[in-house]
Every structure is written in structure tokens, then in C-alpha cells.
């Protein structure tokens, strides 16, 4: 069973400036609810029991959001407002399942994952990238059932416009398992259009094996000088570790860019 999830949250959020100059992007409201709560709700519904937040000193606002008990207790005592009581209960539920680890230098997603090494208990764990919201169908839940069926690692996948391949990790597909699932031969971080092996992109949901930590500890910086999780996954595939690309059926919303963030609010409001 997959019981633990990790969420890298130390990113600077430069694509959302000026909103992120003093504010954590994951706390920005999307239709009145912080983005990170959508991600947490997806985890809870998928049966996740513990979530590890990888934050930085600059993103401590995220921890404070879940640890503001004194403030809530004072307000509730004074106002006895049912809405606030309900919200506080929700925060307490989230808080109980969250652990915090620190990544103070933004060295890449792979480096963020490595910070969680000593906390991961089982053979496999889930990672969610908070910029990627998937609505209408719980992508993590579907991936966990694929993992159970094939006993392998699973990564969320979406067809993208060929012109945009250099924005994503791109899969090279191997055998088709069924309508939505393919074994993969390779994954390349942000390839040029010329070398991209397909138009199937990695979207931010991964079921990763614990083995990835030994790859990450030896991983050299890749594209843009960052340590990429994609490169560590590639090394595991080359050693015959089974990875499945799962074409999810929910709707993808990119909350990490200004355009995408605005669109996400509109999409969620009408759904
Ligand atoms: C990250 C991954 C990339 C993936 C993308 C999905 O890129 O490195 O492989 O396709 O998330 O959103 P980033 O968005 O951090 O540039």
C-alpha cells in the first residue's frame, strides 16, 4: 500500500511574481481555497496517511498556516463562529498528517526528494507537484490502483502540443498495457522538439520506489544546473526498473504560471 506522500514546496514561484514576492504560491486561493488544500484533499481521498512537506526558510509561511492554533482558539472563544470552527477543524486534520523537512537551496526537484529519505518507510511512495492541479478525477487514487495491479512505479502523463515539449519531461513509450497505461523505455527532461521521443509529457504525480534515493544521492545536475527527479528515474529505467506512464482522465490545471493560475480559478469556479 502507498501510505506516504511527499510534496516539494521550496520553489520560489518566480512565474507568479509579483504575487509570490512575499507570499507562498501554494497558499494563494483558487476559488477561495488555498491551492495546497486541493492537493491535500486528493491525498486524503487516495488513502494517504502521512504527507511530507519539503519547505524552505523562505516558505515557513506554509508551516505557520497549519500551526496558528493560538490565533484560532482566541477567535473561536470570542466569536463562536461555526464557519471558523469548521475551518479550524479542517486545518487540524491536515496538520495531524503533515511532517516538515527543509530544502534551503533551490537545487531542483530531485534534491527536494532526497531530503525526505529518512522518513520514507515503505518500498513505494507518492510525490505530487503542487503547481499541477488535476480536477474531476482523483489522479493519485487511479495511479495507486495501477501500482497495485502491476506492482510498478507509475507517473502521470498527458499528451501535449509538440511545439511545447521543451517545457516538460517527455516519455518514450514501450509496450501498451491497456488503454491508459504504457510501459516506458525512457524519460527525458525538457528535450528540444528535434530529440523529443513523443508528445507524452510527465505531469506532477509520481509513484516512486525507495530505490530512487540511492540514484539521487549520486545524481549530477542536469538541465539548468538542477538535480532533476526525471534524470534519476531515467537511470532506474536503464537498470530495468518498471515504470508506467498513466494517461489520467481528470482535467489538468497549471497553477504555477500567471495565465494558468487565473484559468484554474475560472475552471474550478464553474465545475
Ligand atoms: C517539472 C518536471 C517535469 C514535468 C513538470 C510537470 O518541471 O521537472 O519533468 O513535466 O514538472 O509539471 P517544472 O514544472 O518544475 O519545470
Q: What does this 3D model show about the protein?
A:
By secondary structure, this protein is an alpha/beta fold. 34% of the residues lie in helices and 27% in strands. The protein has a single domain, classed as Alpha-Beta Complex (Spore Coat Polysaccharide Biosynthesis Protein SpsA, Chain A). It has 9 helices and 13 strands. A 9-stranded mixed β-sheet has the order 5-4-1-6-11-8-12-10-9. It is globular, with a radius of gyration of 19 Å. The model has no long low-confidence stretch (mean pLDDT 96).
Tell me the fraction of residues in β-strands, as a range: 25-35%
CATH homologous superfamily descriptor: Spore Coat Polysaccharide Biosynthesis Protein SpsA, Chain A
What CATH first level would be assigned? Alpha Beta
Our Rg estimate from Cα atoms comes to 19 Å
Helix proportion range: 25-40%
Choose one word for the global shape. Answer: globular
Considering the chains and any ligands shown, give keywords for the structure:
two-stranded antiparallel ribbon; 271 residues; alpha/beta; 27% strand; binds 1-O-phosphono-alpha-D-glucopyranose; globular; single chain
List the helices and strands and how they pair.
Blueprint: E1 4-8, E2 29-30, E3 33-34, H1 35-45, E4 50-55, H2 60-66, H3 69-79, H4 82-97, E5 98-102, H5 109-114, E6 124-128, E7 132-135, H6 139-150, E8 153-159, E9 169-178, E10 181-189, E11 200-209, H7 212-218, H8 229-238, E12 243-247, E13 251-254, H9 258-270
Parallel strand pairs: 1-4, 1-6, 4-5, 8-12
Antiparallel strand pairs: 2-3, 6-11, 7-13, 8-11, 9-10, 10-12
